[in-house]
Design goal:
The protein is α/β, with parallel strands linked by helices. It has helices spanning 2-6, 47-52, 71-82, 90-95, 100-111, 115-132, 137-143, 149-160, 205-216, 226-240, 256-267, 276-282, 289-297, 324-345; strands at residues 17-20, 25-27, 41-44, 56-57, 173-178, 185-189, 194-199, 220-222, 274-275, 310-311. The structure holds zinc ion.
């Protein structure tokens, strides 16, 4: 934690907080304020714990706010929303005083795409909407800011894996980006339910988008629907420790074996763990521990299908697609809230004896 704090390593944001004894203030690991002497620093797992110890939140890095969007990001996003055909080049970014490299890093980390990639997806999503509403292709090409039909067709084909004309009746997978204490997540849903939930800094995200598009035979477009809004609410409750079972509808196509594994994962109770060996027995293939591990790793619905609850026989965490720190965080979160609940529901037999005197 000290190393992450001294290096202002953004990968640790949300995983711990730093409190400074001399000022009585607590910060995110990435706080731009001057670093105090390491001996004056105390570390906390949550803001609640830091507050309970009498520390106040820092006004510069605002540790109580969920990974807030910088102003320049909000400005860029609203410009794209207002005029999807708008091209914001690196040169234009610079004239607005924004460093293109920062923009690229931010969008990669938060959206799993470059800024230009995100803007292109948004433009094409608009075009797809128009095509599906029955507008002529010419209008869609013009409205999305492409100068030629062939340029539009190429970009469309690359983004959605199908020619514009073939998408007239396609029900797209809608993608939204959600904030969490563990960093941004990207979520996808069809009309039937949620089909994707991943940490958006995963390197394989673009490949994952392609897989989902292929599995459902439809394009992915930025947007939202009722399932994604419900997921947003349920995730917030989960991270607050007040939700133990997700009820948003899920869609997870896969081989019969993969589906058996994923369904077993859904049966692991909140706050508990199971070994890969246990899971292999539960799906009826006791010797297929490795195949079970692979299917576990291919789970596309992080957190909601709780693959983080699978650990080694010795209790070691082993692997997690979103990183071991996140796995540990999720297990700790669940354990602490499960214990609180157990304490409330089953008071000890000698409860009467421990009443305040
Ligand atoms: Zn701070």
């Amino acid at each position: 934690m000290e190393r992450a704090y001294l290096q202002r390593d953004g990968a640790y944001n949300g995983l711990f907080l730093v409190a400074v004894r001399t000022t009585g203030i607590f910060c995110r690991p990435t706080c731009p304020a001057r670093k105090p002497l390491p001996t004056n620093v105390e570390y906390f797992p949550t803001a609640k714990a830091a507050l309970a110890a009498g520390y106040r939140p820092c006004k510069r890095c605002r540790p109580l706010a969920l990974d807030e969007q910088p102003e320049w990001v909000s400005a860029l996003l609203s410009d794209i929303e207002a005029e999807p055909a708008l091209r914001i080049t690196d040169a234009k970014l610079r004239t607005r005083g924004i460093d293109p490299a920062t923009v690229r890093r931010y969008f990669r980390r938060h959206y799993g795409l470059t800024f230009q990639g995100f803007a292109r997806a948004r433009r094409l999503a608009g075009a797809l909407g128009q095509i599906r509403e029955g507008h002529a292709l010419d209008d869609a090409v013009f409205a999305s800011g492409f100068e030629s039909h062939s340029g539009f067709r190429d970009a469309f084909q690359r983004a959605f894996g199908a020619a514009p004309g073939r998408c007239r009746n396609a029900e797209p997978v809608v993608l939204s980006w959600l904030r969490s204490p563990l960093g941004p997540l990207v979520a996808g849903a069809t009309a039937a339910g949620v089909c994707l939930l991943e940490f958006s800094d995963r390197r394989i995200l673009e490949a994952q988008f392609a897989t989902v598009s292929r599995l459902f035979g439809t394009p992915l477009v930025p947007g939202s629907n009722a399932h994604l809004e419900r997921l947003r609410g349920e995730l917030a409750d989960y991270f607050a420790g007040t939700l133990q079972r997700f009820s948003v509808p899920l869609v997870y196509p896969g081989s019969p074996f993969q589906r058996r594994v994923w369904e077993q994962l859904l049966h692991i109770p909140y706050g508990q763990t199971r070994s890969y060996e246990h899971l292999a027995i539960a799906v009826g293939t006791p010797t297929a521990t490795r195949a079970v591990g692979r299917a576990n790793g291919l789970n596309r619905l992080a957190i909601v299908i709780p693959c983080h609850r699978v650990v080694g026989k010795d209790g070691q965490l082993r692997g997690y697609a979103g990183g071991l720190r996140r796995k540990q965080f999720l297990l700790d979160l669940e354990r602490s809230h499960r214990e609180q609940r157990v304490r409330v529901e089953t008071p000890p037999a000698n409860a009467a004896l421990s009443l305040p005197r």
